[in-house]
Amino acid sequence: MTQLIQKISGYYYCALKALRHAEGLGPLALRLYLGPVFMYVGWKKIASIEDTIAWFGNPDWGLGLPMPELMGWLAALTEFGGGILLLAGLATRLISIPLMVTMLVAIFAVHWPNGWQAVGDPGFLYANDRVVEGAERLAQAKEILREHGSYDWLTARGNLVISNNGIEYGVTYFIMCLMLLFSGGGRYVSLDYWVARQQGRDV
């Protein structure tokens, strides 16, 4: 029995050693997912930078942040430029840090009051009063559409939902950036890897 366990263990560790050559696929998947997301939100901020600055600075209907012009540009350029760097796998660990900061600002300054869920689902574990109330509003909206609108046509491509705008996506992106901070861009599949190889550094 002991010999069998040792044999299985040997095969297992051989398989892990072989997998090491493909370990860059995990960071690559994260980068390919996050890169376009950050580029898109960053470009939206840049394209309407005056509105972005106003939203960052206004304490009544915006975030009420200090130095809104500086903060707006920093957020926009960090997200857009960071998305490009993630796609290329260049300075992956370094750019992950300011991207994590932007996610923390988004989580606590924008989404925190709405709870966890991005899309309201009253049956979910973290549903709060806001989500429950949203479900009631959605049910009434569906009844109105069934009586007076083209409900079947409106829902032919998916169900109607209420966006709760909670911290769910922000936390998810933060964790993904945290993973990239520790893993880097990935073996063989990032510019970071080849730059390090060219400089003779251990990767």
Features of the shown structure:
203 residues; mainly alpha
Structure commentary:
- The protein has 203 residues and is mainly alpha-helical.
- It has a domain at 24-115 and 166-198.
- It has helices at 2-19, 25-47, 49-57, 68-88, 92-111, 129-148, 151-154, 168-183, 191-198.
- Helix 2 packs across helix 8 (168-183), helix 4 (68-88) packs across helix 5 and helix 5 (92-111) runs antiparallel to helix 8 (168-183).
Structural class: mainly alpha
Rounded radius of gyration (Å): 23 Å
Estimated helix fraction: 55-70%
Residue fraction in strands: under 5%
Question: Main sheet, how many strands, which sense, barrel?
Answer: none
| Mean pLDDT metric | 92
What's the helix-strand series? Answer: HHHHHHHHH
Measure the end-to-end span: 39 Å
Q: What is the tally of beta strands?
A: 0
Indicate the overall shape.
extended
Helix segment count?
A: 9
Give unreliable regions as ranges. Answer: none
Secondary structure elements and their pairing?
Blueprint: H1 2-19, H2 25-47, H3 49-57, H4 68-88, H5 92-111, H6 129-148, H7 151-154, H8 168-183, H9 191-198
